[in-house]
Design a protein that fits this description.
Blueprint (H helix, E strand, L loop, with lengths): L2 H8 L1 H33 L7 E4 L7 E2 L12 H9 L3 E15 L5 E7 L4 H4 L20 E2 L6 E12 L4 E13 L3 E7 L2 E7 L16 E3 L3 E5 L6 E8 L1 H8 L7 H4 L9 H14 L3 H6 L2 E2 L2 E2 L3 H13 L9 E7 L5 E11 L5 E11 L4 E2 L2 E2 L4 E3 L25 E3 L1 E6 L1 E6 L5 E5 L4 E4 L20 E4 L2 E5 L8 E8 L1 H7 L17 E4 L5 E6 L16 E3 L1 H8 L10 E6 L5 H16 L4 E4 L4 E9 L3 E2 L5 E2 L2 E9 L2 H36 L3 H9 L4 H30 L2 H23 L23 H11 L1 H32 L3 H33 L3 H13 L4 H34 L4 H22 L2
Parallel strand pairs: 4-20, 12-31, 15-28, 24-34
Antiparallel strand pairs: 1-32, 1-33, 2-37, 3-12, 3-21, 3-32, 4-5, 4-11, 6-7, 6-16, 8-9, 10-11, 13-14, 15-31, 16-17, 18-19, 22-27, 23-24, 25-26, 29-30, 29-37, 34-37, 35-36
Helix pairs in contact: 1-15, 2-13, 2-15, 2-19, 7-9, 13-16, 13-18, 13-19, 15-16, 17-21, 18-19, 18-21, 18-22, 21-22
Length: 931
């Protein structure tokens, strides 16, 4: 027979080669799918809204903090234009911090329902226009009130509580007392007829909190009590180029379209704009204009009423000058500041004893707050009250809202500073925040709305820790007038910026801080930090407003172009994935660096949580400072795509190599064990005159058939996957198979064997139990026993290595969001690849164990004839495999540890455990299957 026929006749060589080829095909297929999934995940998530971040001075390190609009400037408009003229530039969008703006909330009030019903003298003209939504007179409900017919004495306790998300502090608590009762309508005779007025009960004293709060008064629907002023809130303002910003954000930037219609810088006089707003009353305003806002150069000024009152107040206070400019703004909708206003209402007797606890009402700033203006007055409702003011119909947008103009400052808070700490095994970095000075908040304005001084002793100031350096830039400009053109939702902008590949926009898309450990290092439930009142704390909310660069010049007092641009976000023209666009993006970054600017390539980056320890966060009454603990914030990991692709591709290839080379080693062990059975054939051929070399060639020809099949399979797989790694792994498998063939051929060398079995040798193991019989059988057939033990040990080591690589995938991938996504995409294929390796290794060890099956069945039959029952025979098989496992155990565990230390040091211990478990599991499986 020729070599092919002998190869097929041997069955064992055919079977082991077939198993190895099947393992190669399956493993390469799974690895190719895993690599494709990895590449697809990285390509889909490696480019954000822009590709290059340009700054005058870029921070060092590959982990970039999200606050890029830091107030340092350094980029001129001439440089911006030069960037835009580069052939590779698609969009170049500048951004800068403008100013810090401090503003008091509108005066809060408590409304107690005291509805007097319909009266033609008070509400007749207001209900004439049914189109405005006014209720017809005959449909007004009957009068009702939460106040008594007779005046009663009440105590009101107003307080404000702020929270940073971790702890609360009471900013103030103020109490006022007085009598309140139900109002009545009084008709009085006057010249030419009678008049109707609302009169309080004769014995009502009203309730008056300290200045700047007003008193209490009745109207047609409520008794309103003026409450103490809420604390000041400081906001930040950023400047953008509206057209470029819209191009950067796409449809998510449509909220900036009104800002594109703002007049040029020399046509923004605050006086002219204010007079235009006042003229709306003089010339008359239609209901539609009242509802939508009057048209101002193509923009509907929805919030014109509070702006007009602010203009009038600033003019009365002498704040506006001929140089004052109107600054067009797109303001943030809502606030992240956790500020809660409470009013406790108690009915008391003349001695001050509580007669009845009426209740406590509360209200937070929340989503109803708008910087610079307000959607509606800050009103709290007396328990049981119903708002009947809607009976008069819509008032459009003629709510005064914030009537005091904001205070603009030319100094503002820069981005926080951090010191570097240790890096974790997966590359995650630890930082420590650098604390700054203590900032005092919770002060009252120096004067009230009427110009009277305000007693500052009624409220204790509160110190907040600043983590932001105070930067001063520009000159003290003439007081500007805020002019609100529209609103924006920070959460919608953040959603448009993406998730995995999110890049910071600067200022109006804040990145939250989440507390994860306390000061002692103990883990705590994840809690998001709330921004501070001073806007200088670690956590910050979105910028209160967005303006253009003419607005920046007006706020800072610049009369000429200056290098005020903090950062330019540049999108390259290159389409496609990061890998496709990488050469063009790198060329663009190089051209920008040639201008003397820092150009950081952020394409291929991903967000990553940085762990930040926060010292000196709070202090007690004695002035002792305490740390907050450890917080996490999403930063930007540069080159994340390249790092993730490299590490996980390496893991994929190593899994493939370990799976196939482990299978090849087990095939070799099986082959060597099997070839020992063919010694009788070699002896016959030797007796026929064949030389040792001819016998070896005769055997190697059979192995050559298997090697050719493996080589063909490797070539086909390498061409199909078009992967150098597949070709190298296939070559390694072929080399291992050939080495096993040569070693196996050496086992056919001629040896003189003399039957010297002693009849009375004390070294013979007496057979008195299944264990001793199994031990004797294995000792007698040492070569086959060792071959099987080596095969089982190799199996255990391979399993340990595969498990170590699987466990190490999250660490190898890194700590970025892209790492997690990419690791998830390759997790299932990697598990399938590892399972395939385990299954192939197990099958090959079982095949090796079946080589002596006929001999085992023979002596087990003899034992059965001698009277051994099935349990004892089963114990013989179990003890044989257990003894083989005992020999294989050190090899499996130590091999797994060695592979683990070499390929995945952080998971080496798990590799050893997996090797141990694999060998232990092989024992009952082999006992059950090989019988």
């Amino acid at each position: 027979m020729n070599a092919v026929q002998r190869f097929i006749r041997s069955k064992v060589l055919l079977l082991t080669a077939a198993i190895l080829i099947a393992a190669m095909c399956l493993s390469v297929l799974v690895q190719s799918q895993s690599q494709a999934a990895l590449n697809r995940t990285v390509d889909e998530n490696s480019r954000g809204l822009y590709d290059v971040l340009v700054q005058a001075k870029a921070p060092s390190g590959s982990l970039m903090q999200p606050e890029i609009a830091n107030g340092t400037g350094g980029i001129s408009f001439e440089q911006l234009e030069a960037i835009r003229k580069l052939s590779g530039t698609s969009v170049a969008a500048p951004i800068s911090l403008v100013s810090r703006v401090t503003q008091n909330l509108e005066s809060p009030r408590l409304d107690a329902m005291d509805y007097l019903g319909y009266n033609a003298g008070l509400a007749g003209t207001a209900t004439a226009d049914q189109a405005a939504g006014a209720t017809a007179p005959d449909q007004w409900p009957a009068a009702e009130s939460v106040l008594g017919d007779e005046s009663r004495k009440y105590r009101l306790t107003a307080s404000a509580v702020s929270s940073d998300g971790v702890s609360e502090q009471t900013l103030f608590k103020s109490t006022a007392e007085g009598t309140l009762g139900k109002a009545r309508l009084v008709e009085e005779q006057a010249a030419g007829g009678s008049s109707i007025r609302i009169a309080a009960p004769a014995d009502e004293t009203g309730i008056k909190f300290p200045a700047p709060a007003g008193g209490s008064e009745h109207n047609l629907f409520n008794l309103s009590v003026s409450l103490p002023m809420a604390p000041e809130i400081t906001e930040s303002v950023v400047a953008v180029d509206p057209a470029a910003e819209r191009a950067l954000l796409g449809s998510a930037g449509d909220f900036l379209s009104p800002l594109e219609k703002a007049p040029p810088g020399d046509a923004r006089g605050a006086g002219a704009v204010g007079r235009y707003l006042e003229g709306l009353f003089t010339n008359g305003i239609s209901l539609d204009e009242l509802e939508e806002g009057p048209d101002f150069l193509g923009v509907k000024l929805k919030y014109w009423a509070p702006l007009m009152t602010q203009y009038q107040q600033a003019k009365r206070n002498g704040q506006l000058t001929d140089d004052s400019q109107a600054i067009p703004l797109i303001v943030r909708s809502g606030t992240s500041i956790d500020l809660k206003y409470n009013v406790k209402i108690e009915e008391i007797d003349d001695a001050g004893k509580v007669v009845k606890d009426v209740g406590t009402v509360s209200r937070s700033l929340d989503k109803d707050y708008l910087p610079f203006v307000s959607k509606e007055p800050f009103v709290l409702s007396w328990p049981g009250s119903t708002d009947h003011s809607s009976l008069l119909g819509s008032t459009g947008n003629f709510n005064q809202g914030l009537y005091n103009p904001a205070t603009w400052s030319t100094d503002f808070a820069a981005a926080p500073k951090y010191t570097d700490g240790e890096a974790a095994a997966n590359g995650a970095e630890e930082k420590t925040a650098v604390p700054g000075e203590w900032v005092t908040v919770n002060r009252l304005p120096e004067k009230g709305a009427n110009g009277a001084p305000v007693d500052q002793t009624q409220r204790e100031p509160v110190d907040e820790r600043s983590y932001r350096e105070n930067l001063e830039t520009g000159e003290q400009a003439a007081a500007p007038l805020a002019m609100v053109y529209g609103t924006f939702d920070p959460s919608a902008v953040a959603a448009a910026a993406g998730d995995v590949n999110k890049l910071p926009l600067g200022g109006y898309d804040p990145t939250p801080f989440t507390l994860v450990k306390d000061a002692a290092g103990n883990e705590v439930p994840a809690t998001e930090l709330e921004p501070s009142l001073s806007a200088t704390g670690l956590a910050s909310q979105s910028a209160g407003a967005i303006t253009d660069y003419y607005g920046l010049a007006a706020a800072r007092g610049y009369t000429e172009n200056a290098s005020v641009i903090d950062a330019v976000r540049v999108r390259a023209k290159a389409p496609g994935s990061w890998k496709e666009a990488q050469p063009d993006v790198e060329q663009l970054a190089g051209d920008i660096r040639a201008m003397g600017l820092e150009a950081t390539i952020v394409a291929g980056s991903a967000r990553e949580d940085a762990s930040i320890f926060v010292p000196g966060y709070s202090k007690d009454d004695a002035g002792k400072e305490s740390a907050l603990g450890t917080v996490q914030q999403s930063w930007v990991r540069q080159n994340a795509a390249e790092a993730v692709t490299g590490s996980l591709s390496g893991t994929n290839i190593t899994l493939l190599f370990l799976t196939l080379c482990g299978a090849a080693l087990l095939t070799g062990a099986s082959t060597v064990s099997y070839i020992r059975k063919r010694r009788s054939e070699a002896g016959t051929l030797r007796a026929m005159g064949w030389t040792q070399g001819r016998i070896r060639r005769w055997v190697l020809e059979e192995f050559g058939v298997g090697a050719v099949l493996l080589a063909v399979a490797g070539i086909v797989l390498s061409l199909a996957s078009w992967s150098l790694s597949t070709a190298l792994v296939s070559a390694s498998v072929l080399v291992l198979y050939a080495a096993a063939a040569f070693f196996a051929a050496q086992q056919l060398r001629h040896r003189d064997e003399i039957d010297q079995e002693p009849q009375h040798d004390e070294r013979l193991i007496p057979v008195d139990s299944p264990l001793t019989f199994a031990n004797r059988q294995l000792s007698t057939n040492k070569f086959n026993t060792l071959s099987l033990a080596v095969a089982v040990g190799v199996f255990g080591a391979a399993v340990g290595g595969l498990i170590a690589l699987l466990i190490d995938i999250p660490r190898a991938a890194g700590a970025s969001a892209l790492s997690g996504l990419a690791a998830a995409s390759v997790a299932l294929p990697s598990i399938l690849l590892a399972l395939a390796g385990v299954a192939v290794g197990l099958v090959l060890t079982l095949v090796t164990g079946r080589f002596e099956l006929n001999a085992k069945r023979q002596y087990l039959g003899i034992l059965e004839a001698m009277g051994w029952n099935p349990d004892m025979l089963r114990q013989v098989r179990l003890f044989e495999n257990a003894l083989v496992g005992t020999v294989a155990l050190p090899l499996g565990v130590l091999g797994a540890l060695g592979i683990g230390l070499l390929l995945a040091p952080y998971a080496a211990l798990w590799a050893g455990v997996a090797g141990l478990v694999a060998v232990l599991c092989w024992i009952p499986i082999a006992t059950k299957v090989v019988q």
